[in-house]
Design brief:
This protein has 76 residues and is an all-alpha fold.
Length: 76
Protein backbone atom coordinates (compact mmCIF):
# COMPACT_ATOMS: atom_id res chain seq x y z
CA UNK A 1 0.00 0.00 0.00
CA UNK A 2 1.43 3.44 -0.89
CA UNK A 3 2.51 5.81 1.86
CA UNK A 4 2.62 9.56 1.98
CA UNK A 5 4.23 12.08 4.26
CA UNK A 6 2.29 15.00 5.69
CA UNK A 7 4.60 17.91 6.47
CA UNK A 8 4.08 21.09 8.49
CA UNK A 9 1.16 19.75 10.49
CA UNK A 10 0.03 22.23 13.12
CA UNK A 11 1.01 20.89 16.59
CA UNK A 12 -2.47 21.66 17.95
CA UNK A 13 -4.06 19.68 15.13
CA UNK A 14 -1.71 16.77 15.82
CA UNK A 15 -2.67 16.79 19.50
CA UNK A 16 -6.35 16.87 18.53
CA UNK A 17 -5.91 13.94 16.15
CA UNK A 18 -3.95 11.99 18.76
CA UNK A 19 -6.70 12.57 21.34
CA UNK A 20 -9.33 11.50 18.82
CA UNK A 21 -7.31 8.38 17.97
CA UNK A 22 -7.00 7.50 21.66
CA UNK A 23 -10.74 8.02 22.13
CA UNK A 24 -11.42 5.56 19.29
CA UNK A 25 -8.75 3.10 20.42
CA UNK A 26 -6.67 3.51 17.24
CA UNK A 27 -3.19 4.59 16.32
CA UNK A 28 -2.69 8.07 14.89
CA UNK A 29 -2.15 6.59 11.41
CA UNK A 30 -5.33 4.48 11.68
CA UNK A 31 -7.31 7.51 12.83
CA UNK A 32 -6.09 9.61 9.90
CA UNK A 33 -6.94 6.75 7.48
CA UNK A 34 -10.44 6.53 8.98
CA UNK A 35 -10.96 10.30 8.61
CA UNK A 36 -9.76 10.23 4.99
CA UNK A 37 -11.93 7.21 4.13
CA UNK A 38 -15.00 8.82 5.69
CA UNK A 39 -14.50 12.15 3.95
CA UNK A 40 -13.86 10.53 0.55
CA UNK A 41 -16.97 8.37 0.82
CA UNK A 42 -19.46 11.14 0.09
CA UNK A 43 -20.40 11.76 -3.52
CA UNK A 44 -21.89 14.84 -5.15
CA UNK A 45 -25.32 13.14 -5.02
CA UNK A 46 -24.94 12.64 -1.25
CA UNK A 47 -24.11 16.31 -0.85
CA UNK A 48 -27.11 17.41 -2.93
CA UNK A 49 -29.36 15.13 -0.87
CA UNK A 50 -27.97 16.75 2.27
CA UNK A 51 -28.73 20.20 0.87
CA UNK A 52 -32.29 19.17 -0.02
CA UNK A 53 -32.84 17.88 3.51
CA UNK A 54 -31.31 20.99 5.03
CA UNK A 55 -33.46 23.26 2.88
CA UNK A 56 -36.63 21.34 3.82
CA UNK A 57 -35.81 21.45 7.54
CA UNK A 58 -34.95 25.16 7.57
CA UNK A 59 -38.15 26.18 5.73
CA UNK A 60 -36.47 28.19 3.00
CA UNK A 61 -38.78 30.39 0.95
CA UNK A 62 -39.69 29.21 -2.53
CA UNK A 63 -38.25 31.86 -4.83
CA UNK A 64 -39.87 30.39 -7.90
CA UNK A 65 -38.33 29.79 -11.28
CA UNK A 66 -34.83 31.31 -11.36
CA UNK A 67 -35.14 31.93 -15.11
CA UNK A 68 -38.20 34.12 -14.54
CA UNK A 69 -36.41 35.99 -11.75
CA UNK A 70 -33.41 36.69 -13.98
CA UNK A 71 -35.65 37.84 -16.84
CA UNK A 72 -37.58 40.12 -14.46
CA UNK A 73 -34.32 41.62 -13.18
CA UNK A 74 -33.02 42.20 -16.72
CA UNK A 75 -36.24 43.85 -17.79
CA UNK A 76 -35.95 46.42 -15.00
Amino acid sequence: MPDFLLRNLDPDLRRTLEARAEMHGRSLAAEIRAILEESARYSRADFLDFLDTWQAEDDWPDLGDPTALIREDRDR
